[in-house]
Amino acid sequence: MGMISPARFIPIAEETGLIESIGEWVLRAACEQNRLWRESGLKPGRIGVNLSARQFRQADLAMRVVQLLKETGLNPEHLELELTESMLMEDVDAAIATMTCLKDYGVSIALDDFGTGYSGLSYLKRFPIDTLKIDQSFVREITTDKASAAIADAIIAMAQRLDLDVIAEGVETPEQCRLLRESGCRHMQGYLFAKPVPAGDLTKLLSVGHVGKHL
Fold this sequence. Notes:
alpha/beta
């Protein structure tokens, strides 16, 4: 069938439960690759790994992550787990407990697709997170839609006041990059900088310093 989009196979994997084994494989592969890059003298920064809702609901998730880090030999500070608002709102207290355990061990937490979920700002100050990621739906329209630009500005300002990192997702044009920088956003990801590539190709980019803080 050729290349199959994650938008097609992830919902099926979630429904059947396969996402748990897939997610663990992805996490292990990412940690091992980051360690290999570091051992070869490269500096990839933190590597971000998205967790699925089903994976995050595992009662022993924090222990699984800790054990995996020990097995792969990756320092916890070099891993960032990405969660969505809707995922956290299913059981706020349990989510906070899991995130707190991960952060206590040294793992960073990012709130992905921020602005598209339904968590209130009162929850934001309770979540032990390190990074807010501005959803690409806002970034895509910041040069043409005043409302999207205002929302992006507000998220950046709020993150700064909360001492959180902020990353803009889906940056594709120099104009988007310029506006985000003017608003104070220093970390971005998107096709403007690089498209998804195999680990071997990314190694070449790292060797010439093309990739920044977040992968």
